[in-house]
From TrEMBL, chain A:
KW Lipid metabolism (keyword) present: no
UniProt domain EF-hand: residue ranges: 101-136, 146-181
Protein name: Calcium and integrin binding 1 (calmyrin)
Record keywords: Calcium, Magnesium, Metal-binding, Repeat
Coiled coil regions in record: none
Gene: CIB1
InterPro entries: CIBP, EF-hand-dom_pair, EF_Hand_1_Ca_BS, EF_hand_dom
Any one GO molecular-function label of the UniProt entry: magnesium ion binding
Organism this protein belongs to: Oreochromis niloticus (Nile tilapia)
Automatic annotation (TrEMBL), chain B:
Protein source organism: Oreochromis niloticus (Nile tilapia)
UniProt key word Membrane: yes
Biased composition (Polar residues): 1-11
Name listed for the protein in its UniProt record: Transmembrane channel-like protein
Membrane topology: Multi-pass membrane protein
Gene: tmc4
Amino acid sequence: MGTTASQLSKESLSEYQELTFLTKQEILLAHKRFTELLEKHEKDQIDARVPMGKIITLPELKSNPFKERICRVFSTSEQKDGSLTFEDFLDLLSAFSDSATLEIKSHYAFRIFDFDDDGTLDCADLEKLVNCLTGETNDAKLSSTEMKQLISNILEESDIDKDGTVNLSEFQHVISRSPDFVSSFKIVL
Amino acid sequence: MAGEIQRQNSHIYDYIGGNGYDREDQSLRRRRVSSPASDQNYPHFNWDSTPEDEDEDSDGGPKRDIRCIPLPMHLRRTIREVQQMRSPAVSRDVSWRGRQMLRKLRNKCKEFLYFFSLWRKSVQMIGGNFGGGVQSYFVFLRFLVVLNFVSFFLIAGFVLIPSVVFRSVATNSTDILAVDNNLNGTNRTAKCKVYEVNQTTEIYQYLLDFLSGTGFMEYSYLFYGYYNITEMPNRDSYNIPLAYILTAVFYFAFCLICIITRMGSAARVAVATGSSTGVSSYSMIVFTGWDYGCLGDRATKLKQKNILYQLQVDLEEESRKRHEADLSTSKKVILYSLRVLMTFLSLGFIGGAFYGIYVATQFSQETTDKRKIVQLIIQYLPSMVITAGNFVVPLLCDKLALVEQYSPSTTIILALLRSVFLRLVSLAVLLSTLWSRITCYPEQLKGNCTLCEYNYNEFQCWETRVGQEMYKLTMFDLLITVAVFLLVEFPRRLVVDNCSCKPVQWVGRQEFVVPSNVLGLVYGQTVVWVGALFCPLLPAINTLKFVILFYCKKITLFQNCRPALRTFRSTTSTFFFLVVLLFGWGLATVVLIYSLSEIRPSYGCGPFHSSNTMWSTVPGSFHNLSNVTQEFLFFVGSQAFSIPLFALSIVMMCYVIALATVYGRSIALLKAQLKLESRDKQFLIKQIESLSRQAHIPTHRAGVQD
């Protein structure tokens, strides 16, 4: 693998294997793809950050309607600008990997859908979510009556304590009944 | 101490939660967030916990998987260091060491299998571009390829290679056919033993014989008739007949185990989700509907259109159901009578197809023609009629479905059930026609069976003949697929792309319809199962056929198909495919049991020519086993063993059912309790607000937090 392998030491590799759900090949591949996004002078820095604009050029994320939300959720930067270090990137891939548990996936899915970061999914969050899912730029989108009906149906089905919002436990309850979620919440490089 | 913990915890919340915690308003959510004990939304790591009381901690044992904590990596690293610092003795614990080794072993195995996964990249690309439904078809196809390949090794190891070895080694093998004392009456034995194979003479004959399994292919390792008992000098030689039967039986059992294991995880999910497999509720679509593996703009737009379509259809169905409940009685009566009529019509179509297959099979067995091409067509007639029926009848049933006006999900399920019924039972009709001819079931043939107990005049070696029929079905299926691929799909795309007239554009590019393709696979696999006893190399041929099919379908998918608007759900469809495959397996098992135990094997060919039925070899060699083994097997088969076993299984089943009922009831109770708690909370909040208003104390964040 040339120079990239020497940049990722054996100890860090085994540490990452312990701390994430990724296999050795996946971590090495992630390292390779991440260093391609770095500038020349940043390639030797340990904690180099890649801005969000570059992360979303990755082919796996490029057309994902949630790409900005994903970057923001996994970012640990102080300015909350969605930039990722290599460890954030590994966190992202670990949550989206094959072997991640349902618990982890549903936790991060909830945070991705929580557009205003307040800890619950209220009507505004749900409306933005539905627009992302159906592509609001298209001519064909749900009419406002359909949207209202849809949101009230969603709340009726998933809001157990009837407070008008969906919190994490209610979200996880819905997710646990879905057979497809674990296999569709996957991004593989 | 408590305050310190609270401060530490709220530091984590502030860190993770972003802006939500800086607002000054009095919303209910903020109150929930500011009390750490009741917070459910963000990860709560108990810095104070010690290893001893972590057994009561809901977070799990002392080595709760560090990866399952949803925090950023540097925090996880810190937590791990804290854990390791606190419990250094645990790292020398034997069981923990064992668990670590097990996990390392599992990781190594996964990495190893990573390289061996067949067509991994192709399947991933298909899933990203066309969705989970189409991907599940290719995953199913890959499973069948691997199953056939492994079965081929099984058969080769136990039947083929010993036969090859014995044939080459046994130079002085007296032809066992001549040395046979068990039959009474030399007339019968002499006449029934004659087995002549037409030799291939002309060049073009080779192609025809290759396609129909006659001529040079008939007396070869491909078919049952070639395998003989070769007498070896020592008595304890490899018993080929026994090996043949036991391999066939074991092959069926092996396939069953593979299918059930594969169904295992899908079944668990299907059962757990219960009734929601048929109903796609709104929150399910919205929360779990997005496929993050979608690659490219085209696939994303398609997925978005898909989800929009699903939501609109569901909303429309809901409004229609509300509307239908208000239908007048007369309209309801008309609708129901129409539905009954359509059901009868569809049964009529299917019955007509069956009759056609029956007539074609009779015709094909009875007539022969001098001209080779016509003879070939006559031989392939049953396959052609089956294919035509499987093509025409579902089209007609689709038109019927438009009249019936069931909801879309019901329509799809009905269409699938009709197709499954049609395919498998048409194969069953073909087989029963064939078998009835062999055993002289029709009245006019009764005379043929008196001499040799089977229809000797038509079938000198009936097992090879059956093997040939199955071989022909397989080859025909492959030829049709390749022909359609080359002659229909590519030209259709060229015409649609280059000609812009209205009718052509209305027809459009073809869609990759998953259900009918899957049924084709199940049909092919069932044919192979039925034929495996009589044509031992059929699984190998089938492996090649499915590999060719994979590449053909993949090329067609990417070049010629437009993506389907209505897609199939992936997990429930995998389960459904395997259930249908089990139906096919059941049909093949019935055929196997009937052939093994009811029909007398041919006198003139094969390893069983001296037994009354194929199965009787097994009890025969049973007596060669040692006494202890015999006693043991008798005991296992006796009532003293099976009745207690049966009773025990019933008890286990009752226990599991009771457990499931209890869990369901506790879930309902917990849901009700959650509702009550939230109502209590809202009531208390209202009380506090009214009290504080009365007392004229402005409600403030600081005042609340003590």
